[in-house]
Amino acid sequence: MKIQVRSFVFFAALLLSFGAAAQPKFEPQVGQAGKDVIWVPTPDEVVERMLLMAQTGPNDIHFDLGAGDGKIAIAAAKKFGARATGIEYNPEMVKHANANAKAAGVDGVGPGKATIRHGDIFVTDFSSATVITLYLLPALNMKLRPTILAMRPARAWCRIPSPWRTGKPTRPPRWTAGAPISGWCRRT
Ligand SMILES: C[S@@+](CC[C@H](N)C(=O)[O-])C[C@H]1O[C@@H](n2cnc3c(N)ncnc32)[C@H](O)[C@@H]1O
Question: Please, what CATH class does the domain formed by 44-187 belong to?
Answer without folding.
Answer: alpha beta
